[in-house]
Write a structure and sequence with these properties.
The chain is α/β, with parallel strands linked by helices and about 500 residues long. Helix content is about 40%, strand content about 15%. Belongs to the NnrE/AIBP family. Belongs to the NnrD/CARKD family.
Length: about 500
């Protein structure tokens, strides 16, 4: 299980382990792990170590002391920019500073110019930073980012919130790391929102702490193990009725493409039969995928099928009537796009959704989530896990908060961050395909929680597959995703 621990949880673990281990053990282990990572990353002899005033700076000083030690076999030229604080350092940090000063490392008071650094080690601030970087510190971080050299961040890139993935401050700055080695356990902020851009490759160094010594985590990273019980090759003795029906309700005038994309997502991920129930019917057949059956939304009866409501649906009276009927029914629902906007405008519809016994999955992007919560998208993005959990609790549903590091949450407070996907998904129609995949898995008998986890993972992995094959991320289109998702899904099932 790939657990994610917030700062409060990490502090609790640190406190427990510090009481059980000799003083300075965790810092020494962090230094050793970071030094090993630094050796792997070195692109030249010259190493710049940025050591801040706290224990994160102590970790960096341990790296400097080891890289520049008398007995090292590494021909490294280590420069330390040490930024002491206004108060005395912890005993562990003071010991690390003494070790670094006794080594061959060169200590400087200002950033040397004109050096071609083979590696920069960021130990300015760790998980405890709560204020935006300002003044000389901000200028230093901006200068480091402008150098374009390999950067190893210790625990978390300085300036990034380890819990939320937001750069601290409304106009804040943070270190752009090539790799982040994070200590004790993984952190949610390294995998969602701005964290994925700033953290680079994430490596976890548990520092000798057995997972059994840690309490349960508040969040997890998504992985196939979380939905593996539904993954199996199909029986020969099966038929289309074995895999359920999906009806995509949407397609107002001028928006016929959205439900077709959702329908193709459902079809290519294994639903037995797929319909488009259009608000404004314009075609009798999808010539690209004639397997998809076309219906009029006002006359369509979904029977025992799963409904995906919202892609291109608009906000007409007909759209509202169709949504109301769906909420009054017992079919499993996936609510996306315009269905979410209609929900946001109607406390009555929200109440009906919250009271339903049948499963529901909501797939909002940040602005749609903000409308539902009555806040701004900035508030949602400022703490994506909290927003997804709040929305799931209010509406008694599984919520997929889309974006970099999509967050999946349920009404019990469980939260999972998805690691698959790339910038190619930032394109029109991508969310429609995701909604269709969610509906497909629901129709095949998956529980809502696992359907959301599986759909988001497969959707992101499909985009990763396309990029690996040379299609994107720039110019990747939503229409390419269903076929790639099929390949990913079948590979998982095998």
């Amino acid at each position: 299980m790939k657990s994610l621990y917030n700062v409060a949880e990490i502090r609790s673990i640190e406190h427990t382990m510090a009481a059980a281990l000799p003083a300075g053990t965790l810092m020494q282990r962090a230094g050793e792990a970071a030094t090993s990572a630094a050796r792997e990353m070195l692109a030249g002899r010259k190493v710049l170590v940025l050591a801040g005033p706290g224990n994160n700076g102590g970790d960096a000083l341990e790296v400097a002391a080891t890289l520049a030690g008398a007995n090292t076999d590494l021909d490294a030229d280590v420069t330390v920019l040490h930024l002491p604080g206004a108060v005395a350092p912890s005993p562990e940090t003071a010991q690390a500073l003494a070790r670094a000063r006794a080594s061959k490392a060169h200590f400087v008071d200002t950033l040397p110019l004109g050096r071609d650094w083979g590696l920069i080690v960021d130990g300015l601030f760790g998980i405890g930073l709560a204020r935006p970087l300002a003044g000389d510190m901000r200028a230093l971080v901006e200068t480091i980012n402008a150098l374009g050299r390999p950067v190893l961040a210790l625990d978390v890139p300085s300036g990034l919130d380890a819990d939320t993935g937001a750069v601290i401050g409304p106009d804040g700055v943070a270190i752009h790391a090539t790799r982040t080695i994070t200590f004790i356990a993984d952190k949610p902020g390294l995998h969602t929102y701005e964290g994925r851009d700033y953290a680079g490759q994430v490596q976890v160094a548990p520092l000798g702490i057995d997972p059994g010594q840690r309490p349960p985590a508040g969040a997890r990273l998504n992985e196939p193990a979380l939905f593996a019980r539904h993954l199996a090759p199909r029986r020969h003795n099966s038929h289309k009725g074995s895999f359920g029906d999906v009806a995509v309700v949407g397609g107002a005038k001028g928006m016929a493409g959205a439900p077709l994309l959702a329908a193709r997502g459902a079809l290519f991920c294994g639903a037995g039969r797929v319909f488009v129930a259009a608000i404004d019917p314009v075609a009798a057949v999808d010539f690209a995928q004639p397997e998809i059956m076309m219906r009029d939304a006002q006359e369509f009866d979904s029977g025992d099928g799963t409904l995906v409501i919202g892609p291109g649906m608009g906000d007409s009276v007909t759209a509202m009537r169709v949504l109301f009927k769906a909420l009054e029914g017992t079919a499993p629902l996936v609510l996306d796009a315009d269905a979410l906007n209609l929900l946001a405008a109607s406390p009555d519809l929200q109440g009906r959704l919250a009271q339903r016994a049948a499963p529901a999955i909501l797939t909002p992007h940040p602005l749609e989530a903000a409308r539902l919560l009555g806040v701004t998208s900035g508030v949602v993005q400022g703490d994506r896990l909290a927003a997804a959990r709040e929305l799931a609790s209010r509406l008694n549903a599984v919520v997929v908060l889309k974006g970099s590091g999509s967050v999946i949450a349920n009404a019990t407070g469980a939260a999972v961050i998805n690691p698959t996907g790339n910038a190619g998904l930032a394109t029109a129609g991508s969310g429609d395909v995701l909604a269709g995949i969610c509906g497909s898995l629901l129709a095949q008998g998956w529980q809502a929680w696992e359907a959301a986890l599986g759909a988001v993972w497969v959707h992101g992995a499909a985009a990763d597959r396309l990029v690996a094959q040379g299609s994107g991320p720039i110019g990747l289109t939503a229409g390419e995703l269903p076929v790639a998702a099929r390949a990913v899904f079948n590979a998982l099932a095998r």
